[in-house]
Amino acid sequence: MEHLLGDEWKISPAGGLTGDAYFAQNDGKKLFLKRNSSPFLAVLSAEGIVPKLVWTKRLENGDVITAQHWISARELKPNDMNMESVAQLLHKIHHSKELLDMLTRLGKEPVEPSNILEDIRNGMALELLSLEVIQKSLDFLTKEIVNVHFKDKVVCHCDLNHNNWLLSDNQELFLIDWDGAVIADPAIDLCMLLYWYIPENNWSDWLSTYGITLTDSLRHRMHWYVIAQTILSVQWYHHKNIDKEKQNWLNYLDRLLPIEL
C-alpha cells in the first residue's frame, strides 16, 4: 500500500473480516483504502450512500485499490434505527435506478424466494435438519412460497445491522459494507430492519416515513424472509462452530414460527 501513496503516508489496518481494509494518514489528510472493492462502489459514492470515492487504482497483479474520504462518524445504536433518515436513505437505495442498472451490468440476476429456499436446503447439515424447529420452518417456507412472489425487484443491501450505518459529525448518514448486495424483493431488507429494531406497533409509522403502507402482503412476505434469513444465520454459526450464537438464532426462530402451519 505504501508505494501507492508515498512514504509520508502512515498506513494501518482498518480491521474487518477480510483484512483488506486500511487507514492512511498524512498531515491531517485521512483516507480509507480497500483492496478489490466492487465496481458498485463508484455508483454508491455518486449517490451519496457511502463516503466519497477519491480514486481507484489497478495494481500490476490485477488487484484494485479504492480510496475513500475518511469521515469522523459513529455507528448507529439499535435505538437509532427509528430515525427518519434511516427510512429515507433505505427508500433512496430501493428506488435508485442507477444502483439497479449497475448491479445488472455486473451480472447479478434477481433473487427469487425459490433461490433462497434452495440455498437453505443445499446448506442444511443433518444435525440441524433433525431439529423440530428447523423442520417446521422449512415446512412453512415450502408451503408459503407460492404466496410471497413480488415482481418489483430492487437493490437490497441484505445486512442492515446497525453497525453498518454511519452517522457523521455533520449528521450525514451512510450505509457501508455492500459485499452482499442482491437484486430482490425489498421485503428482504425491510424484514431485517423492522423485526430486529422497530417495535411492531411502530411498523406502520416507520413504513410511512419510508414511503409505503403496511399491507397484509408485505407483512406476509417479510415474515417469510425473516424466517429464511434466521435459518441462514443458524447455518452460518453452525458451520463456524459458534454454538452460543447458533442457539440464540434457534430460539429466535422458534418465536417467529406461526402457531398454525
From TrEMBL:
Domain Aminoglycoside phosphotransferase: 14-224
Pfam families tied to this protein: APH (PF01636)
InterPro entries: Aminoglycoside_PTrfase, CcrZ_PhaseVar_Mediator, Kinase-like_dom_sf
Domain of life: Bacteria
PANTHER family the UniProt entry points to: CELL CYCLE REGULATOR CCRZ, PHOSPHOTRANSFERASE YTMP-RELATED
Designated name of the protein: Aminoglycoside phosphotransferase domain-containing protein
